[in-house]
Specification:
Blueprint: H1 10-22, E1 26-28, H2 35-38, E2 52-55, H3 59-72, E3 76-79, E4 95-98, E5 105-108, E6 113-117, H4 122-130, E7 134-135, H5 146-151, H6 159-162, E8 169-175, E9 181-185, H7 190-196, E10 205-212, E11 214-215, E12 219-228, H8 232-242, E13 250-258, E14 273-281, H9 285-292, E15 303-304, E16 307-310, H10 311-316, E17 329-337, H11 342-352, E18 362-366, H12 370-373, E19 388-396, H13 402-417, H14 436-443, H15 445-458
Parallel strand pairs: 2-4, 3-4
Antiparallel strand pairs: 1-2, 5-6, 6-10, 7-11, 8-9, 8-10, 12-14, 12-15, 12-16, 13-14, 13-18, 17-19, 18-19
The chain binds flavin-adenine dinucleotide (FAD).
Length: 475
């Protein structure tokens, strides 16, 4: 395939103008009053200028957008919630297929099934499902889009009990590169359904997801105990040792952070470096309270926000610090850890004490549970067997801090990668890191080869390549 074109000829401009009249949604172009707002994504570090942003209102709009991209050979970016840190939801010069208006959610209470639009957020789904005491395992910041998240896995407070978001998929509707509208499930387009559960946005534009939902809440037990960073080594070891026997009901992460300067926290703690064993127990409240108690006694807490809270509140607990259009520059990397021995803990603690900025967050997620019991070849998703996931979510406010912060992040990641195969969680990926070696390590050879087959069948010209890209054989 020839390189995708920049939409700058008179013929391109005419095609875009014609296209705009076919949409039920709207078309935003450079010079329009809302253009600069529409091209923003969550990561402040991303500054791209598409030729056209197609705000789709339904499947027909998506088909038209794909047809235009094909006819004019345009670079295509697909935008769900715009939270991908690498900025894949926007592009220079080409077309953004923006699904933000396709955020409908319909709950079939009796069947415990949920149908959600390709541009819905976690909050949209939580809002509708919790009205019926149900939940879909998605992720832990409610403004995040379910599109990118589900297609690359989706790790939430419910993963140890109910698996990754993609494990809860029943079917997926999508528009493929040739403009066809397909349903993928265990009965139809089975190969595609396998690939969509972990293979990212490589196969087309998902217009809706159908999930299985589970009874959760309305109240759950939340754990969030803030300990001083000076106690990090002991708290971290205590968390690891205690959770060796954790029930599936408890999903947890331990995070290195600084108390944000926010009214939710006592002002005397603002900026204080902390380590926080956090988690959510989705079983009976008394059981949850009893289970988390030792995590609240791993040292002398500075603050303890643990206790029973509505599931919706737990899902929104971090929202104020990760606003929809972020004020901060971000660069993230992740690494699955096969062991978390004392040496690994010491290395992470040393880095935790020397984070480059106060906004840099380092969560270590406890994996295992239901997500790890799905066979590795049942879906495309990799990394299921890893017991821990380290994520380095570096963030800064002053552009001048970028170079140093990114260098620190890469250096830390390289240090931790020594002796490991470099398998990462593809939802936590920095810009320009989707090398074939990294993708292979993350999926495993067998799943990677199968993904290449499916990609070659459904998107042989690699129209959908602004993602954690699986290159088709022909390209
Ligand atoms: C604050 C924050 C918190 C997060 N928390 C979690 C978490 O708890 N658990 C977790 O697993 N991940 C988490 N993530 C990572 C998140 O899963 C990814 O950033 C993901 O890409 C977000 O999806 P999105 O739809 O918002 O992405 P976008 O930026 O809109 O899209 C990213 C890519 O996904 C694909 N895509 C999106 N929607 C569609 C669609 N409908 N059809 C086809 N392709 C599509 C496209 O390839 C696109 O390039 C978090 C990210 C942030 C910024």
């Amino acid at each position: 395939m020839s390189e995708a074109q920049v939409a700058d000829t008179a013929s391109d401009q005419q095609a875009i103008a014609d296209f705009s009249t076919t949409l039920r949604g709207s078309c935003i172009r450079p010079g329009d009053h809302d253009y600069d707002d529409a091209r923003l994504v969550w990561n402040k570090g991303i500054d791209k200028r598409p030729a056209v942003i197609a705000r789709c209102r339904g499947v027909a709009d998506v088909i038209e957008a794909v047809k235009l991209a094909r006819a004019k050979n345009l670079v295509v970016a697909v935008r769900g919630g715009g939270h991908n840190v690498a900025g894949n939801a926007v592009c220079d010069d080409g077309i953004v297929i923006d699904l933000g208006a396709m955020n409908h959610v319909r709950v079939d209470v009796a069947a415990r099934r949920v149908r959600a639009g390709g541009g819905a957020t976690i909050g949209d789904v939580d809002h509708e499902t919790q009205a019926f005491g149900l939940a879909v395992p998605l992720g832990i910041v409610s403004q995040t889009g379910i599109g990118g998240l589900t297609l690359c896995g989706g790790h939430s407070w419910l993963t140890r009990k109910h698996g990754f978001a993609c494990d809860n998929l029943v079917s997926v509707d999508l528009v493929t590169a040739d403009g066809r509208y397909l349903t993928a499930s265990e009965e139809q387009n089975i190969d595609l359904f396998w690939g969509l559960r972990g293979g990212g946005g490589n196969f087309g534009v998902v217009t809706s997801f159908e999930f299985e939902a589970h009874p959760v809440g309305p109240d759950v037990t939340f754990c969030a105990t803030f300990y001083p960073m000076e106690d990090a080594a002991a708290v971290f070891r205590g968390w690891r040792d205690y959770l060796a026997e954790a029930p599936d009901e408890f999903t947890s992460q331990i995070a290195f952070w600084s108390v944000p300067p926010h009214e939710a926290f006592p002002s005397e703690l603002h900026g204080r470096q902390i380590i926080v064993p956090a988690g959510l127990h989705c079983g009976p409240l008394e059981e949850g309270q009893r289970f988390i108690q030792p995590l609240r006694e791993l040292g002398e807490p500075l603050l303890d926000l643990s206790g029973p809270i509505p599931y919706i509140a737990a899902q929104q607990a971090f929202d104020p610090f990760f606003k929809t259009k972020c004020e901060r520059f971000n660069y993230w990397k992740s690494l699955y850890l096969d062991v978390l021995d004392d040496a690994a803990i010491d290395s992470i603690v040393a880095r935790g004490l020397n984070r480059p900025t106060s906004w840099t967050l380092m969560p270590i997620r406890l994996m295992g549970g239901a997500g790890s019991r799905v066979p590795a070849d049942a879906t495309a998703l990799g990394g299921r067997n890893a017991p821990f996931l380290l994520s380095i979510d570096s963030a800064w406010t002053d552009p001048d801090e970028g170079e140093r912060t990114i260098a620190w992040t890469r250096d830390f990641w390289e240090e931790m990668r020594q002796g490991r195969n470099g398998s990462i969680y593809l939802n936590f990926v920095g810009d320009g890191e989707d090398t074939e070696a990294m993708m292979r390590a993350s999926y495993g050879d067998a799943n990677f080869e199968r993904l290449v087959e499916i990609k070659s069948k459904y998107d042989p010209a690699n129209m959908f390549r602004l993602n954690q890209n699986i290159r088709p054989r022909a390209v």
